Amino acid sequence: MGIIYLFSKAYGKKYDARCREEYTKEDFEVRVEKFFEMIISGTCVMSFSCAYVIINHVYELVETGKAVNLTQLENFLVTTWADGKDFVLLFLICFSCVLNSVLDTFIIPLKVINKDEKATMRMLGMFFAIISLIYLNTIGDESQYGPVMMYYLGLMIGRFVYFDASFKDFIDNMKKVFANSPILLMYVLYTFILVFIGFKAEYFLERNYYIVGVFHSELFMLFVVFLVFWGGRLLFKQSKKSSKSTN
Description:
By secondary structure, the chain is mostly helical. It has helices at residues 2-11, 20-63, 72-83, 85-107, 115-138, 146-160, 167-179, 181-200, 210-246.
């Protein structure tokens, strides 16, 4: 947030001195909420990826005979995964989309940015997931992320190219992605630092797959966003009350 404030301060210099402070404050609030939406979206998207990895790992344990004496419910879940894996993945990704809406509407209500800006940040959240999965495949993580990446790619293509879309719509979407790429870059770097510290301190375990460490880092960031958002609101209300009482 400090980096975003400095950027907004520098960006605000293009405005007239009489209204510079107001525009800088507005620009800062928009960029911060975009960053918050990026974290919310990234967490929800990675929850889907992480769920896939864990479920698939458990299924492999059953298939290889390492997991035995399953209950009736566990047998049903294993059979469902074997027979309808694609439908389960579709359900999980729909659930992650619903979770995203619940988080940024009720739990951390972001009201400064509009629906289009939220949609752009959500799309960048999927782009972040694709970057992460490609990197995990490159460094030799044992899990397979092919099916998950195909779902994300399909969703991104659907966001860029839809039935009644024109070439102008495609260019507009590309401009929005490019304009918000610094937030994505900052988010990628922030996540990488947290994950690196987590594995270096052995808080995250390599045998649990790297993606689980990434997801835990996302949860940590989401919790911090929750504290900052509501803490900031409480401080603002208190300062308002104190200014009224002084007047």
